[in-house]
């Protein structure tokens, strides 16, 4: 069941995974070109600070996305950030 939930979250993240952070730096907003699954390089179902370093936008917003401050972004934290992120805009 957990694998199914994780797969659904990862799939949703993939569908939403492109964008830009608002120029005004609205707290809690993330837009990443990568999906959760792509950022979770070691497959432990969480993104570490070093894993986030592979994506510039995720790295810049890591502290805001890591809402519990444990040093890792979970699938739930990632999904919440994606849900509240700034919409894509054409550049």
Protein architecture, described:
- By secondary structure, this protein is mainly alpha-helical.
- It has five helices and two strands; from the N terminus they run ααβααβα.
- The protein has a two-stranded antiparallel sheet with strand order 1-2.
- Helix 1 (about 1-15) runs parallel beside helix 5.
- The longest helix has 15 residues, at about 1-15.
- The relative contact order is 0.23.
- The model is unreliable at about 15-35 and about 85-90 (pLDDT under 50).
**Residue runs with pLDDT of under 50 for 5 or more positions:** 14-33, 87-91
Helix amount? 40-55%
Major sheet strand order = 1-2
Would you report the number of β strands? 2
Please give a quick description of this structure.
The chain has 91 residues and is mostly helical. It contains five helices and two strands.
Notable traits:
91 residues, mainly alpha, two-stranded antiparallel sheet, 5 helices, 2 strands, 7% strand, disordered C terminus
List the helices and strands and how they pair.
Blueprint: H1 2-16, H2 36-39, E1 46-48, H3 49-52, H4 56-65, E2 72-74, H5 75-83
Helix pairs in contact: 1-5
